[in-house]
Specification:
Blueprint: H1 2-25, H2 29-41, H3 44-52, H4 65-92, H5 96-104, H6 109-139, H7 152-160, H8 164-192, H9 196-201
Helix pairs in contact: 1-4, 1-6, 2-4, 3-4, 4-6, 5-6, 6-8, 7-8
């Protein structure tokens, strides 16, 4: 769980500023699309294998060792596409007439971004974070294939020992965790959406 949250936070810190800035500028949109496409094209398992082997000792990257760091990097790369795509699309879908009216009222660009674009785009941005969270959680199970951390260890141990019930238990726990995270993320979206109260009172 800690690895999932850590990778999601890192991906958000990297991806959100880039996507929001590109969306606000209205230029270089191909960068957001290409970054997302590259992230989707990267095979997570291949990244895990490449990063988990090498001359660096296993004790040099914290409690999970090199495999844990490889898992973290792979999950960050996997979380970036939905975060970047949704943040960029959310900003670009804000009504241009509203933005022009705001500029006509003398609002500075940073004021337009903070007070208009970001609140209106927040539902789409939060959806991207939710998608990334669930995808990262589900994908983290393959880390066990390269001796990384996660619930995948239960599944791989079950395969190694020919214990079907253990494999089934690991799969159920992974699926249940994804559903719980999905539900919590939906609740968080509703709480953090600054426009929700306005829509309810309208």
């Amino acid at each position: 769980m800690l690895l999932t949250v850590t990778s999601l936070v890192i991906a958000a810190v990297i991806g959100l500023p880039v996507a929001l800035w590109l969306g606000h500028q209205g230029r270089f949109g191909f960068l957001a699309v290409n970054i997302s496409n590259v992230g989707r094209a990267i095979p997570v398992f291949a990244v895990l294998i490449v990063l988990s082997v090498g001359p660096v000792g296993a004790d040099e990257f914290g409690p999970y060792g090199r495999a844990g760091m490889a898992t973290l990097i792979a999950l960050v790369l996997f979380a970036l596409p939905p975060i970047i795509t949704n943040a960029y699309v959310g900003i670009r879908e804000v009504d241009r007439d509203i933005l022009e009216a705001s500029r006509g009222m003398g609002m500075a660009e940073w004021q337009i971004f903070r007070n208009i674009e970001l609140p209106l785009a927040m539902p789409v941005v939060l959806t991207g974070i939710r998608l990334a969270l669930v995808q990262v959680w589900a994908t983290a199970t393959i880390a066990a294939l390269v001796a990384g951390p996660g619930l995948g260890r239960i599944i791989t141990r079950g395969f190694d020992n020919s214990r079907t019930y253990e494999v089934f238990a690991g799969a159920v726990l992974t699926a249940a965790g994804a559903l719980i995270l999905e539900g919590l993320a939906v609740l968080a979206e509703r709480r953090l959406d600054p426009m929700r109260a306005a829509r309810q009172t309208a």
